[in-house]
Amino acid sequence: MAHKIIFKPTFILNLKQQFTTTTTSQTHNISHCHFLHHPFFNIKIRPISLHSTTPITTTAAATANHGGYLDLTDDDLMRQCEMGTFKTSGPGGQHRNKRESAVRLKHLPTGIIAQAGEDRSQHMNRASAIKRLRSLIALKVRKTVDLDAYSPPRELLQILPPKSSIRGSDIGSQIGPNNPKFAMGMQALLDLIFAVDGSVSDAAKYLGLSTGALSRLILSDDSLRKEVNDLRASKRIRGIYWYSLWAQIQ
Amino acid sequence: MKLTLTNHNFSTLLNSSFINLTRPFCSLSLSSSLSSSTSIKPQVPIFLRPPIYSTKLNDLKKWHNWAKNIAFSIGSSFVQSDNGPDSTILCRELKWFIEDVVENHHSLFSQVGDDNEKVKMRADIEELYCLWKQRIEERKPFQYIVGCEHWKDLVLSVQEGVLIPRPETELIVDLVSDVVSKNEGLKRGVWADLGTGSGALAIGIGRVLGDGGKVIGSDLSPVAVAVAGYNVQRYSLQDKIELREGSWLEPLKDMEGKLAGLVSNPPYIPSKEIPVLQAEVGKHEPRVALDGGIDGMDALLHLCDGADLMLKPGGFFAFETNGEKQCRELVDYMKSNKSASLCNLEIFADFAGIQRFVIGFHR
Ligand SMILES: C[S@@+](CC[C@H](N)C(=O)[O-])C[C@H]1O[C@@H](n2cnc3c(N)ncnc32)[C@H](O)[C@@H]1O
């Protein structure tokens, strides 16, 4: 299946503001890491070359077959990232007490950047950054949908409200925005909305929902709503807002 | 090559070793009278103390405002004097301070509640004034104020006399985790963390080893051994981690040629840099944990001999250094003096891009 990345670099700045809460006093430079991957996730390590050495090798990282990123485990996803902390001045290590533990991940295949810095340990910030990366990937990486043969994937069915007519009883209870699995459903939903050129009423038909019910679902997550509205704006369609729910949404 | 403990720094190490004869210490028997570290009572970090104090919300707010104002008044003056924390960092610490002290900190300042309402706390309000004063006036490290540091997914107890573990050092555990994931023998072997301090590396590694795997953590400082013992117990790793008091290799005489792995973050700061360190570090952290001698290499060179002597064939080692210069010197030293025993030498950078670690294997 073909995947399209509709990630425009100009988005990065907006996204950074929206998705990160790092302190203002730090320099936001990514440092040049001497290895591409982070060993925390048992990853291939790239040493600085010394003569006559045999690098530690691990099995190669999962191939980036454009997309499928959200199917990857955290470890595998991390393997596709370049990681940096915020540039520190001075020698670091034993010299310093400053808790410079903010983390910045750059997902190399897509160029998406996620960062986190509000936790007390670097390890935890890394975990938050990867969680953010997942939702950014879900929002920004699109795959083409064949509307003629469309059947919603299970991840999407799981985030639909029970009143959807195509949602079988075997799907289980509805998954909300706080569940980590929501990102994958959101990605599939955005794929569909993208395929129908931003029309919520058309998308709703494919999902066995009323336009109002799908709008409510879109409004339940801020980043999802923003993404749908950005898409609609690019197609010159009015955005979806709570106050316009009563009105007919096309 | 036969081992010869004759590098130019060894005599100084030998002297300190003689004064501090090996005293085995087992974390299982904190009550044992054999060790001097048993007489040291580790302090309980604030976040683990019972919430037995009760304060009016209003009084807590007053303290909070007072503390915040002081933090703001600092501006960037500490940054200018010794690259210390600015008010943004101090305010962040204040937030963490409240998290550790107040039982229900989540709803604390958000509620419209009654100012006479009582708040449950783990320290007395007077103590909070006193502690924040120490933070600002004495530049006492925040981690000593609250008695803990968040390191990897652990919360380790620390107190004056024990080095606060650094984020850079987390990487050593990751390197070890990577190595043992590919080598079952090393995963089940005995590892050593020399100069264990709070026990950070020993505990981190203890948790990535498999069944049968063990870690021996050693330190010259009785306070460090006591605090490490407390942390080991808190993570219920008494069966996996043994602590021994003594200088570098001495408490591990029984392990010659037997270790699967050897890690250390030894003191590596050149002596002349100690007086100009950031006050939190230079005035409060133990000198014995920081001062690595004239060029900072005393302990590191000694540890090379340790890797040669203690590791079994195929065993792994990882050392933290002060940066690129020390990494290069260490590798050069090993290449010219230890090439018969140590191989696959590599240098790794930390996340700020500074070449920080030297790793390798025993042939
Ligand atoms: C930089 S600290 C590292 C502590 C801990 N491993 C960490 O990474 O947080 C160095 C440690 O080495 C210990 N040390 C200093 N001289 C020593 C010696 N001769 N023998 C054993 N340990 C020593 C210090 O007490 C201190 O705990």
Automatic annotation (TrEMBL), chain A:
Signal peptide: none annotated. It holds the Pfam family RF-1. SUPFAM superfamilies: Release factor. Transmembrane segments: none annotated. Gene3D superfamilies: 3.30.160.20. InterPro entries: Pep_chain_release_fac_I, Pep_chain_release_fac_I_sf, Prokaryotic/Mito_RF. One of its GO terms (molecular function) is translation release factor activity. Residues 80-139 form the Prokaryotic-type class I peptide chain release factors domain. Belongs to the prokaryotic/mitochondrial release factor family. This is Class I peptide chain release factor.
From TrEMBL, chain B:
GO terms for biological process: methylation. Keywords: Methyltransferase, S-adenosyl-L-methionine, Transferase. CDD domains: AdoMet_MTases (cd02440). One of its GO terms (molecular function) is nucleic acid binding. The keyword Methyltransferase applies. The keyword Cell cycle does not apply. InterPro entries: DNA_methylase_N6_adenine_CS, HemK-like, RF_glutamine_MTase_cyano, SAM-dependent_MTases_sf. This is Release factor glutamine methyltransferase. It comes from Medicago truncatula. The gene is 25499562.
